[in-house]
Structures are given as C-alpha cells and as structure tokens.
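Holo prediction. Input below; ligand is magnesium ion.
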Amino acid sequence: MSKTLLEVNNLKKYFKTKNGLLHAVDDVSFTIEEGKTLGVVGESGCGKSTLGRVTLRLLEHTDGEVKFEGKDVLAMSKSEMRQMRKQMQIIFQDPYESINPRMSIGELIAEPLIVNNICKKSEINARVAELMDTVGLAERLINSYPHELDGGRRQRIGIARALSVNPKFIVCDEPVSALDVSIQAQILNLMQDLQRDRGFTYMFISHNLSVVKHISDDIMVMYLGKVVEKAPKAELFRNPLHPYTQALLEAIPVPKLSSRGRKREILQGEIKSPINPKNECRFANRCKYATEQCRCGTPELREVSPGHFVSCYNV
Ligand SMILES: Nc1ncnc2c1ncn2[C@@H]1O[C@H](COP(=O)(O)OP(=O)(O)O)[C@@H](O)[C@H]1O
Ligand SMILES: [Mg+2]
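Structure of the complex:
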C-alpha cells in the first residue's frame, strides 16, 4: 500500500519587485508517495528552486498548503519546525556555496549531528565515519578541505550532511548539474541506491529532462511558475501532450542514427517575465499552436487520462 508523504495544495510564492509582483510559483499542487521521486523540470527561472524552498519552508509562502504526513508544515510553530527540519532536507547544486570552506570534511559532516543533537558526543566520530562510507567518501579524506576535492566528492559531502539527520524527504535541487557527465551518473546511482535502501522520498529538480528521467517516478513540468504537465514518467515520455514538454523532449540529444530524418524543433522566442503576468497561457508567445483563445485566458491543469494532467487549450 502506498502512502502519501507530501501533499502540496495551491502553493504560491510571489516576490515584490520594483516593477511589480513576480509570480515565481503560481498555484502549484502535487503529492509525492513515500519512497518515490517526483522530478521537477523546466528552464532556468521557471520557479523550481523557489518551489523546493517554499515546500521546505526555507522561504515563507504567499498562499497555499504543504502537508507532511498530514501535518500542516506552513502552520507549524518554531519548535515544531525544528523537529520537522530533520525530516525534510535539501541538497544544493553546488555544495561549495552552502558549506563553510574552512571546515574539514569531518567537521562538515559532524556539524549537523551536533547542531541537531543527533547522537552523543562520544558517538560522533563513528557516525561521521559511517556517513562517509555510506556516500562513498574514503576515510582518508576526513581531514581534507572541500577545495581539495572534485565536484563529485563535494556533492557527496552535501549528501552526507543531508542524510546525517535521518530525513524522510529530500529536495534535490539540481544536484548533478554542476558535475561532469561521467560523475553525474555516479551521484545519481548513489542517490538511487540510498533511496532503495532507506526509502527516501525525493523531489528531484533539474532543468534537464534527461537527468530526471532515470530517477523519477512522476514528472512535473513547470513553465513560468505554473505546472504545464504532470504524469507518471513512462506516460510523459511516451505521450507528451503539452507543446512545452514536447519541446523539452526534442531538445534531448539523441544518438546520430536514430535522429536521422527526425525534425528537431528547438524552442523559439524569449521566455516572458514572471512579473505581473497577463491572464493568458504563459507559453503562448513561444507556442506554434497558439490560438486566440490561448491569449485570452489561463488554461487550467486538467486530468486527461488517469494520472496525466495538462494545461493546454489545444489538448
Ligand atoms: N529572492 C527573490 N527575490 C525576487 N525574485 C526572485 C527571488 N528568488 C527567485 N526569484 C525569481 O523567481 C523566479 C524563479 O526563480 P527560481 O525559483 O530560482 O527558478 P529556477 O530554479 O527554476 O531556475 C525567477 O524569475 C527569479 O528571478
Ligand atoms: Mg534553480
């Protein structure tokens, strides 16, 4: 029996800017079942990181609801939130920006254990060694500094720090985007092994659909703060319905032979500003199928087949 771990309803995050209200996340809803991965994709600036941060309450929300095991996260008191933080962690794109470069690997991994009172002082060294082993960092690196390591090993520190508090849910915000392709696969495999062994639930954010393909159970495609399509992974790849999803899929490089004769259509036009958006489909200016209707209203996200949602007037 699957159990819903996270339920997000009509979540909004607007930023006040000098030019108006920036709709970074605009009425986003989804659920993630325990032990599963929701892939979140879309071009840079479409609101993925903001969605992740508001879901974890690292940023205050404008409107909406986040429920973790049925409990309303956005209404929790400070002390409740302190407990909640251990359940919900984040892994960043560049761990180097989120860690103190003057701390050694051992200190960096010990820090969350100490701050959160995870174990007795006498147990910290053993716990650090165990975490390093779990994420594939050699013991001899314990006194090294982050700048002495390559990007893949630095990301392993970020993962160890997230794991140290025994979370259930982890937002992975472009965790492999800064890494060489060969190292990306190693980190993705590590994250999948950890999920299989420990039952983690992931929100896996990437601007690259091919990166989320392997790890995701469901995929949610965002465009300018809105969800344009959401479906189980296999269904999304087999039957992409939104023109934006289709464009993202066509942008994935395919091996030479199979691409022969295939028309590649890369996205045209500029991404609009998310400030004071008009009541129209936000993709209309780049969409080759756009009609008058698309410029006169915002399409709702509709379920067109079981579990497959799309917001497009032409589907
Ligand atoms: N603190 C902030 N203040 C104002 N605007 C912000 C802030 N953080 C993000 N934004 C804007 O919100 C939109 C979504 O950004 P972000 O969530 O970082 O997108 P993504 O992660 O998909 O690249 C962008 O237009 C970005 O400029
Ligand atoms: Mg981002």
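Residues 4-241 form a domain with the Rossmann fold fold (CATH 3.40.50.300). That is the main takeaway for now.
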